[in-house]
Amino acid sequence: MKADAPETVLSVKDLQIRYGAAIAVRGVSLEVKAGELVAVIGNNGAGKTSILRGISGLVRPAGGSIFFRSAEVTALPAHRKVSLGLTLIPEGRMIFADQSVEDNLILGAYQRWGKERAAVEADFDKVYALFPRLEERRVQMAGSLSGGEQQMLAIGRGLLSRPSLLMIDELSLGLAPKIVEQLMGVLKDLNREGLTILLVEQLANHALAIADRAY
Fold first, then answer.
1. Over the stretch 115-140, which tens digit does the pLDDT of each residue have?
2. Is 99 helix (H, G, I), strand (E, B) or coil?
3. E-assigned strands of the chain?
4. Rounded-to-integer distance, Cα 69 and Cα 49, Å
5. CA distance 67 to 208
6. pLDDT of residue 113
7. Phi and psi dihedrals of 211, rounded to 5?
8. Is 204 helix (H, G, I), strand (E, B) or coil?
């Protein structure tokens, strides 16, 4: 008897992203199945970030379709997609520098905070176990963290939304090789625990080392 095929968590067909008259990407199609770690690799300027911005709702696609867990979400804004379980860790981290580490993490859980406080607090413990440095610096201003610590914070903030699919844009940007290896290992561990991940990355060797498939 065959096991059931994994659910297709994300299906993107013929995606087109425009900025005014300029076409950033067109004809992009990809799929991510439950439990996979899928990489999108390419050089700077290839349109990788635009793909994630379109999928996440930060930019409204000019064409194509996006299905998340069988529901069409092409035109939904970013905050609606987060509530469905589709979370983006953006290029450059985009943390709130003048807020504490803990406040940044709370913002990651803002849609859950009033409804499932006990579960959020348990997820805080998991994030601090994953990144002990964040617990050590929980009251420190996020802008004073190192680049690697800021990326840990961005990942932790994303995890606190409790995503079904975590999308990560250029994990390695501006980080030392040792930190990149550490964080790639964290992503692989999270994936082994069942988290579905879509990773956009310029460093193909690092991405391919942990991915199930790549585009």
1. 888 888 899 999 999 999 999 999 99
2. coil
3. 8-19, 22-33, 37-41, 63-68, 71-72, 86-89, 165-169, 196-201, 213-214
4. 22
5. 25
6. 77
7. -85, 150
8. helix
| Per-residue pLDDT reduced to its tens digit, 5-22 | 789 999 999 999 999 999
Determine contact, residues 38/211, Cβ cutoff 8 Å. yes
Task: Say how many residues make up the chain.
Answer: 215
SS3 4: coil
**Residue 188 belongs to what H/E stretch?**
helix 177-192
Give me 185's structure tokens. Answer: 């290992």
The pTM is what? 0.92
DSSP 121-181: HHHHHHHHHH-HHHHHTTTSBGGGS-HHHHHHHHHHHHHTT--SEEEEE-TTTT--HHHHH
| Cα–Cα nearest to 96, from 86, 87, 88, 107 | 107
- Burial grade of 170 (CB within 10 A; 0-12, 13-18, 19 or more): buried
Q: Which residues of 97-123 are buried (b: 16+ CB within 10 A; e: fewer)?
A: eeeebbebbbebbeebeeeeeeebeeb
Distance CA 195, CA 215 (A): 19
CB 156 within 8 A of CB 131: yes
d(C-alpha 74, C-alpha 66), whole Å? 5
